[in-house]
Amino acid sequence: MTFKRIGEFLKGYVTVEVRGKNPERLINLCLSSGFPIWDIVRHDDKVYFSISLSKYREIRTLARKSRCIPRIRKRYGFPFFLGKVKKRPAFVLSSALILAVLFYLSGFIWVIQVKGNDKVPRDLILEVAAGEGLKVGSRKAYVSEKSVEEALTLKIPRLSWAYVHFQGTLAVIEVVEKVRPEMAGPGDVIARKDGVVDSVLVLSGIPLVKPGQTVKKGEILIAGESGGGRQGARGNVTARTWYEVRQEIPLYRLEAVRTGKTMEITVLRLFGREITFLGMKRLFDWYEMEEYPVKAIGEGSRGPLIEVLTRVFFEVKWRPIEFSVEEAIAIGEKRGRQVLERQLPSTAKVLGVTCDTEVHGSECVVVRVVASALEEIGELRPWPEEKNGGW
Amino acid sequence: MRKRVRQELADLLELPLDISLDLPRVVVVGDLGVLISNHRGLIQYSPEEIVIGVGRGQISISGENLEIEEVSKEDMAVRGVIKSVEMNT
């Protein structure tokens, strides 16, 4: 059936077989009567053509005129389909029933999908939703998306947003959980380290220290109100703190001096493994080593694949070199300051650095570098679980 | 004589000849089909030859497996393997 035949299909058409001596005459008669015909095919003495159903009734008289016998061979189109359907009322009824049942069942919720929850358990969300009527088996028409959304955000405080929508028989609950800043629960502000309190800024809670007071590490600086309000302490406590570094600097250092004795061996390195040949294996007690490549073949990921090299060992002796006390102090101070710099937190404000030294005979010098700094020493220590109300 | 007058008149007025002189218009689509406008009816039909009456004579189409795809009062579409289209006046 081509596209232009759709109209004919709706109205219905038939393929007619014509027997007779002069079927051409019948065709011409049809044409002169204004009946369009198509798909005219001849097989031996029979001619087949298609004509619309309404016109077929009229060609009988024309056929008599042209002495042909028309017979319907095939029927196409909607009217014939309708005729078939009329003969099978059970079929029509059952298909209508199936459609109705499908339509009725599509009004129910079959599956509930929960999206976006990470810490809030799925069962809890489903339970709250069920409380508002959204559960598997309930009718969509009786479920108010808005009230489910409201119930979810009200009854589960850890949810900040909920969205309920239906996709056919699937109910989708989309939620977004509240993201708490990475902060410990309510508690007291305690001292992170020893120091002398410089200033106390209380945002909530009861301050237990005053400026000028010396505090020990772990001492409570600001207490939270654990009574009725279960209000945790918040606040900043700056204090003067001290950092001390001791550096022991010996008054001499050892230096390696080559004695002039050398030893040379040839090494073959194959795929990273070394084979030593040509030369003694026994080495000096202390030595320095130098390598000279002789030949390298191939290129691997970790250097050449095959390599021949000469290794030269130089015997060394240790010789002490003496420092002056001033030199040693300068070295000690420099090292001490470097170590201190690493120890000081980046937030601390350095107030001053002092150095003092002790000379222990001709052996060594001890340098003590002390830095005083101003820094925040308050640290929140959360209360045990039962105290903070299961936050 | 009348024909000549009509043709001259058509030439003068630059009218299409097929309309003014009641002549057929034949369109041949490769060897796949023939479209004939302004025909006068089917004279003979077999899968090898179709003879169609036109204003001044006949047109005979010969070929293989010829079918009349569509026919109306004015137009006729023939489908099949077309071998020749002949005009007999």
Automatic annotation (TrEMBL), chain A:
Keywords: Membrane, Transmembrane, Transmembrane helix. This is Sporulation protein YqfD. The lineage of its organism: Bacteria, Bacillati, Bacillota, Candidatus Fermentithermobacillia, Candidatus Fermentithermobacillales. NCBIfam families: spore_yqfD. The chain crosses the membrane at residues 90-112.
UniProtKB/TrEMBL annotation, chain B:
It comes from the Bacteria. InterPro entries: Spore_YabP/YqfC, Spore_YqfC, YabP_sf. Pfam families: YabP. Gene3D superfamilies: 2.60.40.2000. This is Sporulation protein YqfC.
